[in-house]
Amino acid sequence: MKSYHLSSSGRRTALVLLIGALIIWAFALWVFQTTLGISYSPVAFWGSLRASIEKGLTISQIVPALLMLVLIVATPLVIWNLLEEWAASYTPADDGLHFASLGLALTYPWEGIAAIQRLEPDADEPADELVLKQDFTGQIRNPVLRWLHAQAYGRLRLPIYAGLAERDELLAEIRQRTGLSAEPAYEAPVLEPQG
User: In this structure, are residues 82 and 17 in contact, taking their beta carbons and an 8 Å threshold?
Assistant: First the structure.
């Protein structure tokens, strides 16, 4: 059985995005700390946060701190998504499409795949996703991994990444095994002249 992984250019793109996300996360941590004047030391964190709040926070501290807090929480989810993309492997087999990545091992039966949707058809490297008829994430035993995977993609979708090597070959095999027809070519809407 042949497995499909990210191409070398897809890995480079994921690596650049991963480095960018790590820089953004480090920046958010630094700005959050300096804006509120707190310490990240486990012993002093709560005390310094309480002292900062008791001293009184201005709007010029609250707004950047809230924005940085959102980045501090959201960026690790983006990092997880990029790492899952980096390690993704798709293997078509008789019993379905096997997806593996970072401790995940899922089998999507061919009859469980409802459609293949093209995302952003005008993109240089368009991505596709499989629309699933039911939730297959129950196959992931670790609840944290199950939650992270569901946060990245949802429970009824599986992306076929744009940077995947021989992606068109994989999509053709999925269509052949599921009996799904090829997606019609994307057509821009025709605008009627107004008169």
Answer: yes
